[in-house]
Amino acid sequence: MKDGLRLGEVVVVGQHSDFGLRSSQMSALSITPAQITRLPTLLGEVDVLKVLQRLPGVQSGGDGASTIYVRGGDYDQNLILLDGVPLFSAEHLGGYTSAINSDLVDWVDFYRGAFPARYGGRLSSVINVGLRPGDFNHYHGLVNVGVLSSRVQLEGPIWSGHTSFNLGARVSYFNLLTEPVLDKVYDKTASLKPYSKLNYLDLTAQVTHNLSDHSQLTAMIYWGRDRKSVSPDSSSSGEYTMDNKSKMTLKSDSKNRNNWSNLLLGIGWDLKLNDDFTFHTGVHYSAYRYEMSSSAYDYMHSYNKLRNLAETEVTNSTTQHSDVDEWKAKFEAVTTVLRGHNIRAGATAGRENCNPTVEMHKHGTYSFFTLDPSTPVQEDEEMLYTRTRVNIDTLVGGKRYNYTEAALWLEDEMQPWQWLRFNAGVRMAMFFTSGKTWVSLEPRLSSRFLLSSHHAIKASYSHMAQGIHRLSTSSLVSPTDVWVPVTNVIPPVKSDLAALGYSYETGSDISIGVEGYYKWQRDVLEYREGATYITNGDWRNLVVLGKGRAYGAEFFAQKLKGAFTGSVSYTWAKSLRTFDRPGQEVNDGQEYYANNDRRHNLQVTLNQHFKLRGKNSIDLGAAFTWQSGRRGTLTTYNVHGLRPYSNDPYEIVVDNKNEHYSTDGLEFRTRDGYYSHLWEYFLDFATYRRPNGYVMPSVHHLDLSATLNLYKRWGSIQLGLSVYNVYNHRNVSNVFLGYKSGHRVLKGVCPFPIMPSINFGVKF
């Protein structure tokens, strides 16, 4: 080496996991922080889960929503781990952004199949999010201000060279800044009311301590809280006069609230004994709290020429709880002592507590009196009435459930020949409930057959079991969700997943993959037709057990290196359910489409990096989405009957066109030709036909973004501009029943027309 010649700093960057051509793992991808921040975002909110939605086999829960459904599975079948701790609800803002703070993310491993034996407890996917340790020697941070939320991140040493911290916090202010802006965009500003009180706050922190060169201790905490108005607070009143002695006064008011929170605590210890033995042990606590409350006040005062008086004043309030507490300990050992083998063995045990309860209160005052016709008519005739009052106060609850879960697993990664590599494993999961023990033996196998240096065939099979479920209605109008556990009569849900795929890679880091899969599910848990948890305090009386199947084909191509990067993903899929057990039939026991059945899903992302003077740069991004509309169940209303105030003979003519949601043609008259105004006594009864028989329109939108990066001596500045739904397509995310010109109609909600946003960030 010549005097004065210096080598520059060498930075080695690599993904946490290698799921490439030569790996035995299939149906999996590793996501870097750069990929997360590079895509256009909704209102500038960087979102880990929305990046996963652009991968094959993944469907979103709705336009703009961060919820994901993988290969025909339900949302609760995704195991979301934040630094090894399960996150039961990974959404903020009612599902429109993720609860995971991307500023602290180090890597994301996503498995949509071929699950290694070390993972269990869910059926559809594993989303393993690793948090980045803080800098052990220097302090860094960032401040970012956007139209929807602001966030700060700070990291640095607590004990230089030994202990570090990494801390991030976010707070939203939709009603303060974003709502006034969107008020100028929306055609009907009343549609913003459900989101006007929608805000979140979260905090994520990790502390890392190096006990030695081969031993490390980590601790993490996550806390997040959401407050949301489920639907617009509404009130109405009116007075209707039919003639000089017939009038009606109506008043109503309703309020709805929806709050949920997560608390995660975890401690882990990693020890590398030598080059052949590594150990990991940890404990964690995860708590989820959900509360949906609604209250309604109704008042009616009716007085008619027949001298009938009716007065009703009713207050109803309902609070639905869904709480989950999980305590768990884990131990795992990894060894390469046997040549050509990478063996993992471990055990886990813990306790799950669920609190699915409902509180219902009703207080009513009812008055009714008919004045004797012989009584002389007076000016203040209503003062003569004697009123009868009835008070009702009820409470319907549920009860807490708990179970103990334990598991043992063993897996071996081996390569007997250069062309053959596979991971074989087995997991034994046990669920202990009061009076019953459920045992599930879960074999796993994933293999790779190398055809050449650029081509490979991969095949896999896995069996999974899940002991906790989130009951969710398929209603598109008012869905309700509640977490419930395995019991002595409710078994774990089980699934088998087989997949076959082809992989191709070039030397320029372009990869192409094609996969086909078939999934069987047994003991699938769903509500009975038309049932919701809010109607009964014991969920076990409202559910049925059945089976499901899902199958599909996936295509994925991506380019990760160079100034120009991007990906193309397409999925064709089907998801079906069958409930044909005696007494538990749904759809008369015939197979029907699941509510997560969406036939087509196309995702295209493009990114271009432009260098400017010095280190400055501009990043441009574009993302296009097109997917089939989601399914759901709509109610069909039928007129049941008419009860008049008195015993006067009424003739009722009813022509109800319920299949068109119409009430046109209703006519009420007495035999002497007098038309009655007592229309409020017609009762609408809801029926449920064709589960998930309604398909909403397809969703498609183009999103663009541009980020200017300016580097200074002390740090950098980022100025970002993004536009969601550039061509302003009206994507329907939900529907509700309403009226138009006297007809009952179906109305769609489009929460996200063209949505521009800007954010400003500083890193130091």
Summarize, please.
Helices cover 3% and strands 57% of the residues.
Summarize this structure as a short list of keywords or feature phrases.
764 residues; mainly beta; 22-stranded antiparallel beta barrel; five-stranded mixed β-sheet; 3 helices; 43 strands; 57% strand; disordered N terminus
General description of the model:
- By secondary structure, this protein is an all-beta fold.
- It contains three helices and 43 strands.
- The strands form nine sheets. It has a 22-stranded antiparallel barrel.
- A hairpin with a 4-residue loop joins strand 26 and strand 27 (510-527).
- It is globular and about 95 Å long.
- Residues 1-15, 230-235, 475-479 and 638-687 have low confidence and may be disordered.
Blueprint of the fold:
Blueprint: E1 28-31, H1 33-38, H2 48-52, E2 58-60, E3 68-70, E4 78-82, E5 85-86, E6 91-92, E7 97-98, E8 105-111, E9 125-131, E10 140-145, E11 149-159, E12 163-172, H3 174-182, E13 199-212, E14 215-228, E15 234-243, E16 246-272, E17 277-303, E18 308-335, E19 341-370, E20 401-417, E21 420-433, E22 436-450, E23 455-466, E24 468-472, E25 481-485, E26 493-505, E27 510-527, E28 543-559, E29 564-578, E30 592-593, E31 600-611, E32 617-627, E33 631-632, E34 635-639, E35 650-653, E36 667-670, E37 684-688, E38 694-695, E39 699-711, E40 716-724, E41 734-740, E42 743-749, E43 755-763
Label the overall shape: globular
Instruction: Sketch the major β-sheet.
Output: 22 strands, antiparallel, barrel
| Percentage of residues in strands | over 45%
Q: Please tell me the overall pLDDT.
A: 80
What is the alpha-carbon Rg in Å? 30 Å
What is the CA–CA distance across the termini?
Answer: 36 Å
> So how many helices?
3
Q: What is the helix content?
A: under 10%
Per DSSP E runs of 2 or more residues, the count of β-strands stands at 43
Class inferred from helices and paired strands: mainly beta
Low-pLDDT sequence parts:
1-15, 230-235, 475-479, 638-687
